[in-house]
Amino acid sequence: MGKIKIFVLIVCVIYFNLPNASAFVYDDFSASELNTTKWNVSAGVDGFGPISDFYLDAINKNYHTKQTVAADGRVRVKLSNYIFGNGEALDYDVFLNSGSGNYMSRIVINDVPLDVAGLCLYCGAIGYWGQPMAEGDAIGKYHIRLNFNQSNTTIKITRPDNTFTFYQSTNFNAPFIFAFETTTGHDGITHVDYDNFAINQECGDVNGDGKINVVDLTYLVAYLFSGGPEPKINKLIGDVNGDGKVNVVDITYLVNYLFKAGPAPTTCGGLTTPAATVLSAQLTTSTPKNQLQISTD
Ligand SMILES: [Ca+2]
Ligand SMILES: [Ca+2]
Predict the structure, then answer these.
(1) Which of 1, 61, 63, 191 lies deepest, with the highest CB count within 10 Å?
(2) Number of H helices, E strands in the chain
(3) What is the predicted pLDDT for the residue at 209?
């Protein structure tokens, strides 16, 4: 193969691996009450009663969950109007304020808690359930990063002391529905809050189903010309040519991409979160396959 051909190949590989996702805040719980178009709350799950408190805390601006008496209790909060597809990601914070007995904060994907899915013992859980969770039970802020891929999910949990745990689950396939859960055992008391949910959505996926196809084109046309709903979750996800506006030029761009081998949607205008990008870079350089790895450095 000649040098020019190799150069072209390398350029193509780089081009087609360019990230075209755009990060934005899904909910930072700064509203006065819970947005029920974004979240579905199940009080008590798996036959367990509801925990004592669970509500949007408008003063502290987070989602508050607290068990005030020793008992079996659950609350599950599902992100209800966004479905994750291949290449998309979710970032959020978990604040462990207190806890005793059996309690944990869980990650739930497609209605199955990660620890129940058998990925590993209590994986994805923060707290203490007969023993300290791998992610720890230290008081403070944990940061969660989920990357949704076609047939697996990677999970990075950064602890209050900046050490982290990394998992790759092979138990799930796209599309992905996410929920978080606070749960206690019979002697469990805890106070866990959640905040700062940010989605890394593929530019051009205006209906938020994890794919870019003709359905998005139809959606965008309906939005611009016949009073259809705005692109989910942020209008600018429809700015596929990245000029900061959503208009007929984006429709032309999308038609060219889908039917005439035109360029893929660029990073949508104005939708970037540097912190999420940094986390993503860390993930891609420390990815063991199907392994649990705990770093203490
Ligand atoms: Ca779509
Ligand atoms: Ca545009």
Answers:
(1) 63
(2) 4, 15
(3) 81
